Amino acid sequence: MTTEPLVKDYMDKKFKTINENASINKAIKMLMKHCLLGLLVINDKGDLVGKLSEKDCLRVFINQQQYSRPTGTVKEQMQKIEKTIPSTTTAIEVADIFLQSKTRRLAIVDNGKLVGQLTRRDLTRGLHLHFFPETNRFIT
Amino acid sequence: MIKNMTVEDLMDRVFISFNPKTSLTDAVSILGDKRLFGACVVDGEGKVLGILSEKKCIRLYRDALAKNSSELLETLTVMDIVYTDFITIEKTASIVDVAQVFLNHDFRRLPVIESGRLIGQITRRDIIRAIELVTI
């Protein structure tokens, strides 16, 4: 069996981000256009400042009770980042992080720089391919 | 208007589900291809037996990695990673009520049941898509 995989082997390096000052409307359109379940949020300097999920967008819709176009910015609805991890974290360590929390998305930060994103889905697919690489014809 | 919409207006009528004998590894392969998780496991009569849990799946694969062996994974079926304490919804439920259910729980999808049989599913994405269409 090969050496234990690391987060860098599974993380998404081409992840989408959204600016904290963007409208919730723009966030919703991004989620739909790119088939995403959530986004990491950055400020004007490119620093990681939060994360936004489908649930956060739904909350706007319900709380505003207008049942029409949601208003407001990403900054007003985003959740704080509880934890970031380096890309050298092992797959077992990151699996334990997902198992012990409700988080579905982790920001990968090396030397203060945001370098990737890892979702539970990325991990599941990565672990499956680790054991069953022959199924790669099905997984894109 | 979204306020007047029901589950029937937005639900998916074509969706992936698995019979209970499907192997775990086959299910994960298929779901990986579709870039989704959380499908229903359904018996021959359309009754939902459980919904696939990504967390349970991660736990099993994590333990296999720790043991450096996929032997156990190859013996399991989808029933080994379902959760059974799920909420179902009827097609006549309002979208506003469904959105509130999604807010109060961590589910991403709800099975839509009629006469005890699975007839569709509705996801958080379906509701957000409807919100997006309202803003066009």
What does this structure look like?
The complex is a heterodimer of chains A (140) and B (136). Helix content of chain A is 36%, strand content 21%. Chain A has six helices and six strands. In chain A, strands 1-2-3 form a three-stranded mixed β-sheet. In chain B, the strands form two sheets. Chain B has a four-stranded mixed β-sheet with strand order 1-2-3-4. The radius of gyration of chain B is 16 Å and the shape is elongated. Classes of the chains: A alpha/beta (140), B alpha+beta (136). The interface between A and B is large, with 42 and 41 residues.
Apparent shape of chain B: elongated
Rg from Cα of chain A:
16 Å
Mean pLDDT over the residues of chain B: 91
* Largest interface: pair, residues per side: A-B, 42 and 41 residues
- The average pLDDT of chain A is 90
Name its key features:
heterodimer; A: alpha/beta; 3-stranded mixed β-sheet; 21% strand; globular; B: 136 residues; alpha+beta; 4-stranded mixed β-sheet; two-stranded antiparallel sheet; 5 helices
